[in-house]
Amino acid sequence: MTDISILHRLAQTIEMRKHADPASSYVAKLLHDGQDKILKKITEESAETLMASKDGDAQHVVRETADLWFHCLVLLAHHGLKPEDVLDELQRREGVSGIDEKAARKTG
Fold first, then answer.
1. Which CATH number does the domain housing residue 46 bear?
2. Residue 15 in contact with residue 77, Cβ under 8 Å?
3. Best label site of 14, 43, 99, 104, fewest CB within 10 Å?
4. Residue 61: its pLDDT value, please?
């Protein structure tokens, strides 16, 4: 089983490429092109993940989910956030009913 440190290493790489030349770095290009471009990629990767699931090809689901997670990490970097911010939120929710957690967001 792979440990969570891959997310941290990938986030560090994304952070290092923030100021790279957009002509030579895909991450730098995405960040340079701005939020709308990043959101478009997340939308595309989400759709591809859904289609892979509908096709029933487990390995394709894994590959598309990896693409989706990668682009979500780029979005986090765009906002100055890190994987730990999401992991902390997931930990906060651990053991809380999804119904209760969603209701708390509406009232709080």
1. 1.10.287.1080
2. yes
3. 99
4. 98
Q: Give the predicted TM-score (pTM) of the model.
A: 0.86
Cα distances from 102 to residues 75, 83, 86, 91, 92, in angstroms, run: 23, 21, 16, 15, 13
Q: Which conformational region is residue 82 in: left (phi greater than 0), alpha (psi within -120 to 50 degrees), or beta?
A: beta
Alpha helices in the chain (DSSP H): 5-17, 26-33, 35-55, 58-78, 83-93, 98-107
Q: Within a domain: residue 44?
A: yes
Identify the band that residue 15 occupies on the pLDDT scale cut at 50, 70 and 90. very high
What is the domain range of residue 78? 5-82
Arithmetic mean of pLDDT, 26-44:
97
